[in-house]
Structure formats: structure tokens, C-alpha cells
Design goal:
Number of helices: 21
Order of helices and strands: HHEEHHHHHHHHHHHHHHHHHHH
Number of strands: 2
CATH topology of the largest domain: Arp2/3 complex 21 kDa subunit ARPC3
Number of domains: 2
Strand order of the largest sheet: 1-2
Largest sheet: 2 strands, antiparallel
């Protein structure tokens, strides 16, 4: 296990400060709000510990029911009870298996306990009702008459817990990884809305416990099942990504030109997708399609792919078959089957030309048209065996010239606007010349 001394000194000092503040706060909290041991709090404590075994991994973060369970303990038994339940979930067996430094584990315990107590104090200071009462068997659920007054202390507890946790965690991450603290704060503050939502799940858990202990497992079970289903879904997505990576690797091993080409095309395609407003699911499909768009070249002889001179008609015919062959390969992989149309038509022209076959413009999927622009831009800016690379200015000018014939004008405009540096000059030049390539579907061809 790494020694605490191996961690940056500022992080260690900050950790010790948080742990000391948590210990002092715990003593004060126990004095004013001693926890009343009950079956309900025992259930919450056990559930919080077990919840770490069912946590959902969304790298680089993980989520579990420990947070709402800690808040439920806070609402049910007060700040000290909330701190105890939260602290029990702060360290898991995985932390020991992964040899987490003891300083980090102590910081996690101290941080979660401290913010839980702070949230609990905010709750009771604003008149929040402790549902567990002052003794065993004295549980009192919230009544209609408690609303809307109880919403203010509930919201205060949630914001104090969430913001306290995120700010202190962001500072600690910045000190630990020796990165700007503002950068690390940005990586955790985007989680605030989901954490606030989970806080209100905690209030529901407390209410259920106050009504009936028997109902608690029935309330928790759906969340456990949902987390496991999501984890399996995330695992399947990882498997799909690994499959795509393996296929791209096989293609790059055969054709040196494609080494890095697929990744660059995927990056350009995602820039366009963001610019034209595609949703996250469509962007994910587009990324996979971009990575696999040249998969059909696996069926093309290496001698043809790497030939330095002019191709014969027969060799060119073989090259032109690669979109269809790639689509056929993707179709045989069930999870990727929906990508086949985009892979098979990424060389289709906006005006219906191109290959593998002419078609009407209304039949060409938008994502295939996006791939066409991204693919051609990268091809033009990379040195090939038969020609040098174009400059970025030249490639952009060619996209503009061929918009309306080979490329969708709207997608060309979106791509240029998404590029850094050239977009203003390129668009100004196009507008000043009133180029039909950008403003309307022009009639220029593309050689």
C-alpha cells in the first residue's frame, strides 16, 4: 500500500485539517444531538455499507445509494446519526483491494461525515422535523400540514451536503493531482443536479421508514435492481467499444494510411454533430460509424491499398467496393448492425452521385453526409503515396467549392464554423463571392 508520505504535502495537510474538523464537529454534534439507536438506523447503516457493493460506475466517478441513505439517517435521527451512517459507507472493501492510501480513506470518512453533519445542522436550524423522534418507537412521518414549510430545511440540507462535498472534494483533487483547483471543481460541480435529486430520494427513504420498517426493503429493492441493470448496460457499451477498437486495430495493421485516420474522422464528425445539434445517442452512433467507415478495406488486397502509382480500372473497382463490404461486415455484428447504412454510404454524394450507387438526395442519411465531409477533409490534409497533403486553407476551400454537389452545404458550413482559426476567413470569402457552394445547393462538381 502506498505510504501517506508519497502523496503531495498540500493534500496531506488539507486531509488532516478535514479529518480534525470532522472529529471536532462530531464531538459537538454528539453533545447536542446524541443519536438514538433504533432498528431504523441500524437498517440504514447496514444498507449504506451494502450499497457500495451495488454502486454504479460512470468513470471516473461511481454512484451508489449510500448518499441518499445517509441523508435519510440525517432526517430520521439527526446530524450525528447521519454522520455515522455516511461514514460507514465512506470506505469499502474495494478501497483495500486497490490499496488506497490510508490518508485518502481518512479524508473520505472525514469529508462525508463533516458535510453530513453540516447538512443536518442546517436542517434542524431551519425547523426541520426529525422523523425518528426522541426515542425508540417514536417515529412520526411527515404529514400534509408539514408542507410546504418542511421544503426549506430539506433544500438547505441538500445544498449544504452537495456543495460542501463537491467543493472540498474538488480542492482535494486539485491538491492531490497538483492541478488547478478550478479545473477539478469543474469536474465535480456538473454532478450537482443529480446529487440534489438523490437528496430528495433520501427524504422519501426517511418517510418510508417512519411509516413502516417492513416497507423499507420494498422501497430499496427497485433502486438496487435499476443500478444493476444500468451497470450491465454500461458493461455492454464497453464491450461494443472494445469490439470497435479491435476492428479499427485490424484495419490499421493492414493499411498504414488508416493509422489515426479513423480517429481523426471520428473527431471531425463529432464536431459537426455538435454544431448541427445531434443528440447524445446520435453522436455516439456517429462516432462508432466514423471509426468503422473504412472497415471494408480489410477485404481489399494490401498491394492495392498501398500501391504508390495510378490504380488500374480493376484495382479502382475493388477500392470502390469497400463501403458495401464494410456495411456487410458491420451487419454481421448485431450490436453494430444499425451503423451499416452510414458505413455503406459515406462516399455517397449530396447530389445523388458518388458510389457505390447513385441515389436521390432524400435517401442519403444525414450521418452518412457528415461522414463524407469529415472523411474527405482528413484525406485531403494527409500525405498520400501519390500526392502531398493539402494545407488546411486549401482543404476548406475545396469543401466550399464542392458543397452542393459532393457535400451537403449545411454540413460544410457547420464543419467550417466548428474549426478553430479558419472559419471566419473561409466564411467571409465564401459570402463575399456569394458562392452557391455555401448559400445554396450549387452546381459545381468536385474533382
Amino acid at each position: 500500500m502506498p505510504r501517506p508520505s508519497q502523496l503531495p504535502r498540500p493534500f496531506r495537510l488539507f486531509s488532516y485539517l478535514v479529518v480534525a474538523a470532522s472529529a471536532l464537529a462530531f464531538v459537538l454534534s454528539w453533545r447536542y444531538y446524541p443519536p438514538v439507536m433504533s432498528v431504523e438506523l441500524l437498517l440504514l447503516a447496514v444498507a449504506a455499507v451494502l450499497s457500495e457493493a451495488f454502486r454504479v460506475l460512470i468513470p471516473p466517478y461511481s454512484f451508489s445509494l449510500a448518499y441518499p441513505l445517509g441523508l435519510a439517517a440525517l432526517i430520521f435521527g439527526g446530524p450525528t446519526a447521519g454522520a455515522i451512517v455516511t461514514a460507514l459507507s465512506a470506505v469499502s472493501l474495494d478501497d483495500f483491494r486497490e490499496h488506497m492510501p490510508s490518508t485518502v480513506m481518512a479524508f473520505n470518512v472525514g469529508l462525508l461525515s463533516l458535510v453530513s453533519m453540516a447538512g443536518g445542522w442546517a436542517y434542524v436550524a431551519l425547523g426541520g422535523k426529525l422523523l425518528g423522534g426522541q426515542g425508540v418507537g417514536m417515529s412520526t412521518p411527515l404529514a400534509l400540514t408539514d408542507f410546504p414549510g418542511v421544503m426549506l430545511p430539506m433544500a438547505a440540507a441538500a445544498f449544504v451536503c452537495v456543495l460542501g462535498n463537491d467543493v472540498l472534494a474538488g480542492i482535494a483533487m486539485g491538491l492531490k493531482w497538483q492541478r488547478p483547483i478550478s479545473e477539478k471543481l469543474a469536474t465535480v460541480l456538473w454532478l450537482v443536479p443529480s446529487q440534489i435529486a438523490l437528496a430528495f430520494v433520501g427524504y422519501l427513504i426517511a418517510q418510508v421508514l417512519a411509516i413502516s420498517v417492513v416497507a423499507f426493503p420494498l422501497f430499496i429493492a427497485p433502486f438496487v435492481v435499476a443500478s444493476q441493470l444500468y451497470q450491465r448496460y454500461a458493461g455492454l457499451k464497453d464491450a461494443y467499444a472494445d469490439t470497435v477498437g479491435s476492428l479499427v486495430g485490424a484495419l490499421e495493421a493492414k493499411d498504414p494510411y488508416t493509422r489515426g485516420h479513423s480517429e481523426r474522422v471520428a473527431g471531425y464528425a463529432l464536431e459537426i454533430a455538435t454544431a448541427v445539434g445531434l443528440d447524445s445517442a446520435s453522436r455516439e452512433c456517429l462516432e462508432y460509424a466514423a471509426l468503422l467507415h473504412d472497415l471494408g478495406k480489410l477485404a481489399v488486397p494490401s498491394a492495392v491499398l498501398t500501391k504508390p502509382g495510378r490504380l488500374t480500372d480493376e484495382e479502382m473497382s475493388t477500392i470502390l467496393e469497400h463501403p458495401e463490404r464494410g456495411a456487410a461486415m458491420v451487419t454481421r455484428i448485431p450490436p453494430l448492425r444499425d451503423l451499416a447504412e452510414y458505413v455503406g454510404r459515406h462516399h455517397q454524394w449530396f447530389d445523388g452521385g458518388g458510389y457505390p450507387a447513385a441515389s436521390s438526395t432524400t435517401q442519403i442519411p444525414e450521418m452518412a453526409l457528415i461522414l463524407s465531409v469529415a472523411d474527405c477533409y482528413d484525406a485531403m490534409t494527409i500525405t498520400r503515396s501519390y500526392r502531398p497533403a493539402m494545407s488546411r486553407d486549401e482543404a476548406v476551400a475545396e469543401l466550399i467549392r464542392c458543397a452542393g454537389t459532393q457535400f451537403d452545404p449545411g454540413i460544410v458550413r457547420a464543419f467550417i464554423e466548428a474549426r478553430v482559426g479558419l472559419e471566419v476567413a473561409a466564411l467571409a470569402a465564401a459570402d463575399s463571392a456569394k458562392s452557391p457552394a455555401v448559400s445554396v445547393a450549387g452546381e459545381n462538381g468536385c474533382s
